Amino acid sequence: MAAPLGFFFLLLLRLGPSSCSNVYIVYMGERNPELHPALVRDSHHGMLAALLGSEQAAKDAILYSYRHGFSGFAAVLTDSQAARLADSPGVVRVVRNRVLDLHTTRSWDFMRVNPSHSVGILSESRFGEDSIVGVLDTGIWPESASFRDDGIGEVPRRWKGQCVAGDRFNASNCNRKIIGAKWYIKGYEAEYGKMNTTDIYEFMSARDAVGHGTHTASTAAGALVADASFRGLASGVARGGAPRARLAVYKVCWATGDCTSADILAAFDDAIHDGVDVLSVSLGQAPPLPAYVDDVLSIGSFHAVARGIVVVCSAGNSGPYSETVINSAPWTVTVAAGTIDRTFLAKVTLGNNSTYVGQTLYSGKHPGKSMHIVYAEDIASNNADDTDARSCTAGSLNSTLVKGNVVLCFQTRAQRSASVAVETVKKARGVGVIFAQFLTKDIASSFDIPSVQVDYQVGTALLAYTTSMRNPTVQFGSAKTILGELIGPEVAYFSSRGPSSLSPSVLKPDIAAPGVNILAAWTPAAAISSAIGSVNFKIDSGTSMSCPHISGVVALLKSMHPNWSPAAVKSALVTTANVLDTYGFEIVSEAAPYNQANPFDYGGGHVDPNRAAHPGLVYDMGTSDYVRFLCSMGYNVSAISSMTQQHETCQHTPKTQLKLNLPSITIPELRGTLTVSRTVTNVGSALSKYKARVEAPPGVDVTVSPSLLTFNSTLRRLTFKVTFQAKLKVQGRYNFGSLTWEDGVHTVRIPLVVRTMISKFYVNA
């Protein structure tokens, strides 16, 4: 007889007139594999009927029945009913439903993933053919040229998914590229009420109304599209990382920007059943982070990874501050954002013929004449202070004095966004913005009026001119695409940084990829501005853009190495990543000021797809390793056992987190001496010898034993130990080093991150 049935209940409790309902998740673990999904669904109805008193009440209350990757259901209930379920035998966890947020031509060339090359990961993987990439996002615009299926073979026989019909979407919108499309709104409507498509431009289907999902899907697996550009900028051949991979679309986010955990879990459940190889998830929840057993992304991804699916998540856009990284479960691949070697520049010519250069994405019409320029602080509204006006904070400017003028704004501590300044000036009927700020390559979008971003030095020169002349004027030049003249990659300013606030011994993010000014397909359904209308391709930035770059690389790797586990794939990415830029300098991190990047910025480094295809050694893991990690976090033993449908014996010893076979070693508290072990699997030449090379973190002695690993045809896995000894008995900060194994062909590098401690009561960095 099989183990008792594990359930995963998502109880969505909608706030009603009596204010007695809420949205909950009740987690009861892994589905019993011996039970048919239909029987699992019936058990959900039965449990609800017993609780609510009738089959009809259960039918009215239930939203989803999860019966593939895990077991459970979603339902609308009262708080007291949820509490009763929390006390029911076998219930692992009852969690409040949460609302999560959404987080090109050049980027793949920049990473040397080029279809014209006869060697490399693209050709070896056959362009990712037959890998299936699932995308949890805002849907897809199926008519985009990026989703043509020219030259792609028949749909893989293992595929079990389907195209679900809806508003302006039916089976004919799927093809050999888009092989599945589903949409999930029951959880959203349980929170917010019925979607009103009269007030909100949205499609009740998998069709994308906002563009975000189309952008991420085409970045990961879009077909080759010639002459793509955003209104003439970034022109070239647009393509995804795995142009022959298949796409399965799971629309869980809506035009409001909201994505509920109930809908997300339904998508995970279906994706596991459908047969995806990769899940690309460009969304998450900002800190404080919930426990892994309370977080739907962690739970859904755990079950996906247990079935061999690689789950790739965005790291978040809360940088450059430390401990802001999200999606930090050790079984996911968490992606930071980096820059590429492309930017968009325009000239700014003053009335005295002095010329400066700034960054811009404005591609509209210019008046072709000089315009009057004013300093924002000089035209403050009556109720605004000087600091707000200086940065063009919303409502801070006098509309009468702004009208018809270009406004010079300066970034402040409280207002750092050029987009906010543009919107403020536009609403006050200004005709242009110059925004002075710290150096960053992330360019704000401006569609209706020209906007140029300059550094403080240029801004100061413009201010001196503006305030010294009786009639200061400025003229904008047209934007130009500049290629190959910038040092890159750099870690983007906005990219969330580690360490993980939930499990600091697990290094996050794992890897960095292009995420700044990325051109990809967009939905023409909604006009991006009143002046421009709709576009088919758009430039956007965020870890939402870097995540699908890694998803595309993973699709290529899975085509080449279909039997690699998710941990092996992550290891290949991390251990072969670059820590040097294209000029051979150490990668830097955009911040104020710039500084040398470290593993809390980019994990193993910036992705190198071609090297990841042949890593030599991998640090592999399986579900049992992740279970031991959950035990070390102090979670309930029965809860963990239910997750896996196996009896687990847990020991709550935080130090066991250090034994997790990650492609990194992070020690948040080093007191004296500590030894950590790792196991590597040879995936290269059977007969090979690897020698260790250590770059010790400052203030720490590091020794490796053995320092030589010898593999043969029968010996593919070897374990080594790394001993850390603090040289200084002082309270330290985090310091960084690396351990590299080399055999003359492969370079397998992992980060070493150590903080020395002298008192268990002193915890500040």
Automatic annotation (TrEMBL):
Q: Which GO terms describe its biological process?
A: proteolysis
All copies of the Inhibitor I9 domain together span: 23-103
Domain Subtilisin-like protease fibronectin type-III positions? 659-754
Where does the Peptidase S8/S53 domain lie? 129-581
The question of whether Repeat is a record keyword is answered with: no
Name of the protein: Uncharacterized protein
PANTHER family according to UniProt: PROPROTEIN CONVERTASE SUBTILISIN/KEXIN
Which segment of the chain is annotated as a signal peptide?
A: 1-20
Q: What keyword terms does UniProt attach to this protein?
A: Hydrolase, Protease, Serine protease, Signal
